[in-house]
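ugh ok fine here u go
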Amino acid sequence: MRWFLAGHRPESRPSLADPRVPGALSRFRILDLSRVLAGPSCTQLLADLGADVVKIERPGLGDDTRGWGPPYLRDSAGDDTSEAGYYLSANRGKRSVAVDIKTAQGQEVIRELALCSDVVVENFKVGGLGKYQLDYASLKNGHPELIYCSITGFGQTGPDASRAGYDFMIQGTGGLMSITGERDGVPGAGPQKVGVAMADLVTGLYAASAIQAALLSRESSGKGQYIDMALLDCQVAVLANQAMNCMVSGQVPIRSGNAHPNVVPYQVFASSDGHIIIAIGNDSQFRRFCELTEEPALITDDRFSTNAGRVRYREALLPLVENIIRQRPSADWAEELDAAGIPWGPINTIDKVLELPQVHHRGMRVPMAHPLSECFEAVGSPLKLTDTPPVYDRPPPLLGEHTVEVLEGLLGYDNERIEGLRRDGVI
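structure:
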């Protein structure tokens, strides 16, 4: 890419100021102006793929999620540090630069960093960066190759564009909570949010995909572009089959607890000592289930021979299956279902998930050196690339940990200028 600041020359990537293990995206630099989860999860994914991600944070405060605890990371003495688990979940692989964006000098620092970056990611309110001249319109003339990704609750246009948007309210507004939870008439019925910030996380994934598409497009066009990501858009997109069911049938999907709207039997069943998930996805699996259970009422009833029939007559079928599963312990069912090639699963607590041999084997727990702890682990990336695997060489940064490194290495600031910024409270 070209360097558009007067007096500076193009530099290759990765720069000497960022000596990282090469990854799939190691020649790209991302300026991260986002906070909380949607934006940071996007930029963490790009960092895992090798991109140089420079995260801008408020001096003294940092990303909001640094204080979203407990729990906090514990040091070698077992005492809480300043690093909340929430922050640690979405910020590995980045360099933290503490700069006060509300000052003219801070804005100039961020502008210079933007003009030597390939991508800017931000999640300010619509128009919020315009007053600092750090919006896309202000930067693109000096850097026509810049890819600029804005993440908001409702997008940059439309009647709700000015509204603030958070994951919880987007799960409700975007329909997810209307199909999550027990159905009416069942104890505990009512809408439920998903146990993680699903709207934020899927927006981060979609944003990372859009950014990589824009980078690929730039390879042929030589031009950057603007990316407008909305939590609501992404939430609507992941309604997937439920939204399409509604559009095709005209019927509004309802909460159905752990049952599947289109596949039966595909839900949680009580065993004699707990619960087990049985996920029968086709007619052949159901036939094997009937053979396994030796239940004549299942084998001979034509209503249940096809999935369409099982969906239509689920109220007749499910009590039969429930009665069968209730007779034996989960471990017995697990062994026999495995032998018959019928999908099943336990309902694990998160601590048990993290101890699963398969989770360890797949590298989903990653030990990392952290300046405040001798036993820091991160949840690994699910991306498994043979030639350019994820890069785990940098833990979530301390607030402002790389401020001097970045100002010196990327912008060429000398010590006098850096100390001046520090005296003025800019960094």
